[in-house]
Amino acid sequence: xxxxxxxxxxxxxxxxxxxxxxxxxxxxxxxxxxxxxxxxxxxxxxxxxxxxxxxxxxxxxxxxxxxxxxxxxxxxxxxxxxxxxxxxxxxxxxxxxxxxxxxxxxxxxxxxxxxxxxxxxxxxxxxxxxxxxxxxxxxxxxxxxxxxxxxxxxxxxxxxxxxxxxxxxxxxxxxxxxxxxxxxxxxxxxxxxxxxxxxxxxxxxxxxxxxxxxxxxxxxxxxxxxxxxxxxxxxxxxxxxxxxxxxxxxxxxxxxxxxxxxxxxxxxxxxxxxxxxxxxxxxxxxxxxxxxxxxxxxxxxxxxxxxxxxxxxxxxxxxxxxxxxxxxxxxxxxxxxxxxxxxxxxxxxxxxxxxxxxxxxxxxxxxxxxxxxxxxxxxxxxxxxxxxxxxxxxxxxxxxxxxxxxxxxxxxxxxxxxxxxxxxxxxxxxxxxxxxxxxxxxxxxxxxxxxxxxxxxxxxxxxxxxxxxxxxxxxxx
Amino acid sequence: xxxxxxxxxxxxxxxxxxxxxxxxxxxxxxxxxxxxxxxxxxxxxxxxxxxxxxxxxxxxxxxxxxxxxxxxxxxxxxxxxxxxxxxxxxxxxxxxxxxxxxxxxxxxxxxxxxxxxxxxxxxxxxxxxxxxxxxxxxxxxxxxxxxxxxxxxxxxxxxxxxxxxxxxxxxxxxxxxxxxxxxxxxxxxxxxxxxxxxxxxxxxxxxxxxxxxxxxxxxxxxxxxxxxxxxxxxxxxxxxxxxxxxxxxxxxxxxxxxxxxxxxxxxxxxxxxxxxxxxxxxxxxxxxxxxxxxxxxxxxxxxxxxxxxxxxxxxxxxxxxxxxxxxxxxxxxxxxxxxxxxxxxxxxxxxxxxxxxxxxxxxxxxxxxxxxxxxxxxxxxxxxxxxxxxxxxxxxxxxxxxxxxxxxxxxxxxxxxxxxxxxxxxxxxxxxxxxxxxxxxxxxxxxxxxxxxxxxxxxxxxxxxxxxxxxxxxxxxxxxxxxxxxxxxxxxxxxxxxxxxxxxxxxxxxxxxx
Lengths: 477, 514
Description:
The complex is a heterodimer of chains A (477) and B (514).
Chain A: H1 8-25, H2 37-50, E1 56-58, E2 63-65, H3 67-87, H4 98-117, H5 121-138, H6 146-177, H7 182-185, H8 196-213, H9 221-228, H10 231-237, H11 240-256, H12 260-282, H13 287-308, H14 311-338, H15 353-356, H16 358-372, H17 378-392, H18 396-422, H19 431-434, H20 441-456, H21 459-472
Antiparallel strand pairs in A: 1-2
Helix pairs in contact in A: 1-2, 1-4, 2-3, 3-4, 3-10, 3-11, 3-14, 3-21, 4-5, 4-11, 5-6, 6-8, 6-9, 8-11, 9-10, 9-13, 10-14, 11-13, 11-14, 12-13, 12-18, 13-14, 13-17, 13-18, 14-16, 14-17, 14-20, 14-21, 16-18, 16-20, 17-18, 17-20
Chain B: H1 8-22, H2 29-46, E1 61-69, E2 74-80, H3 82-101, H4 110-129, H5 133-142, H6 144-154, H7 159-188, H8 193-196, H9 203-220, H10 229-236, H11 239-264, H12 266-292, H13 297-317, H14 321-352, H15 363-366, H16 368-381, H17 388-403, H18 405-431, H19 445-463, H20 466-492
Antiparallel strand pairs in B: 1-2
Helix pairs in contact in B: 1-2, 1-4, 2-3, 2-4, 3-4, 3-11, 3-14, 3-19, 3-20, 4-5, 4-6, 4-11, 5-7, 6-7, 7-9, 7-10, 9-11, 9-12, 10-11, 10-13, 11-12, 11-13, 11-14, 12-13, 12-18, 13-14, 13-17, 13-18, 14-16, 14-17, 14-19, 14-20, 16-18, 16-19, 17-18, 17-19
């Protein structure tokens, strides 16, 4: 039964998309309305917050609205608002493509939003594809940059392969268990000895999500795509699709729980992902590649909560996903503000940032320390919740690997701060080209403040995450 | 809230943090310095209620507790006992002194420098008053950031290397400490330190958690062979950074041993005591020998810190009353004397622009006041009777001899080495061939103001240590009693690990069924 109140956030976003579509086909004079897009997405946060109270099933039980989905819809609107704001003045985007760019951004966000409510494998698959197709179009939109086309092709090709694998896995699951509804799949057997094909199927299907999350071994696209895409697009790709992947993983944790074979596999992937991502990030000099590899390691961290599989673990994963969104966006915010001509920044480009723009340097420092997981930032709190939940379930070795990985990560994140604060700006460049304009510093500051605030007082967001975690394993009959 | 209603510890933690924000609105450098000085003096005033500390009990006092993250049973929980209150006094006292000793030393980014200073002090008070494990860890790590910046931005020529080494070393050490915290929580269902002290832990659990915590603490102390970050950090740090590093940061490691290792992991502490004692003695001797050969004043004092802190860990791990009391006194005394010595090095550096001993000789004739203070702090540093250093070193040595004669005999050369390197330094500075000392002015009023209180403390604690000892005594008695009882209990019964506590509370409004 279609209950319109359950669909309010999606409808609101659909309306926005409709508006953007009109702009793409309308005269150029209408494009001035684009500047209100971040505000409209910001209103979406309120809309999602207001619809937090609703819960129910729709579309023949394939679409579930509950605390988990509403929590993530709110986070998606938040991320969308910030990425739209960030992408408003994109130096590498040709003028005639601007409305299309934002149309695709919003379409991808809609896909992710649908993903957060999908409780049926085909619906999950379709939502995932909707989120991905828009990105396939967005990534190459970086004018005069051959790497952008390469990144786009890479993302599409690998994405297509992973899609095929997911479909293949879905067919296995359907073949063995004769259903694609999570509510029914929960009741089935998931063990290597009894239903090996179903287990292979779920592993392949999860592969699609791991691809989005950039979890080892499906991470390879990540640094290349970040590097090739424009800074603003990379900021989107690095944050929102991760939220989508986490929400589905949290949702599917009820399937993973009964089968130790799968959770152990996930735990091993988490450990390898953390270690591989961090070690690779150590040697990067391109900022976006560095963040790309760091996101591989963060995918591993999030898996700690999924592997734990308990309400505590799932809430921790939900909390960390939102925290990661904020701290990564803050970091990308600085990169986008610094790269006024849209080029890729190297570590040395941060030299003397403190003198050129103390505000941006501070935002960068806060986000870098948060990404390390250093107190008193939200990154620390998120990591602590994840470690607690994994240790509770007896994954001591995984927790030890996670904390040791934090030690590795210190080096490259601290490098960002070192370059910004302790190195002098190059002397052979004219002073006027060094001065960093500070437009939108306020928003970067707000992101940094949020990261700090959630580190000091995480209880409110965590109680929401707790609601989400509690409803995660539950699938309405 | 406290009994009196005034949250004195929270005020001490958060006032400097809030005051740090106020710095952003100031422009003039002189105003910034004056403002921070006034903040320091107010902070000292705010500490005044702590004088109502009840000396007769080992309980935590001035306790404040309020829920923080209820789902994980985390609380904002602070309080002090006899071990931590003296460290808080020292921390609070150092803020205005650090502002004064940096008055003309720091010439660039003055506002940011004082910002870091205020953050440091707030975090350090937080460390010594936290009674929640997570809160402790937050302050423990948070103070790294301002310290890193103090070295990295205002440090000497090799500041980048030194700051990075300091940060990575100490943070890497603490990561396993975090795993230990998680383990304790999952084992007991609480982060409350007083509550954790009431639980019993199986030896295997104690073994691993002790190792994880001890690594973090040993790096912070620093104990041989984890000390290599210290000379680099000290030499490169600005004067105030060196002072805070020596006086407070190093104490966090030994405080950790006292606060966590002995009460929480008594059996493992006993098990590892021979190792810890060996490392402590090696630290004392190694630090002394290396200090003897230094040409750089700061390096010399840095290596002497390795030796002095060796006394602290030695006193802790002999588990005798006098040993532990001496260790705590040594924490305070080292904070006072070494802090003062670094200030003196900073003062002479402002005149000669060199920290080489050879460039700063012949001060006895031209800078008598300077040499007076230097002489006083130097003899206090090697434990001359009548100074504070004597009280603590004597107590530690008595404690060590009480435990084992051989250990005492092995430690004695360390005391002699301390006398040797300090006297060598003092003699060269006072009567060495003057280089340019004739052109320098003796201590000015500002320098007198920041050195005099420390000199008074050196003599006060040296001549009348009773009040300080009375303050720490009940806590030490309690600590050792608790340690002995639980150790005995552990030996009698081999404890099994408790089942993991179900601490995670599901929200009452769980919307759906599974």
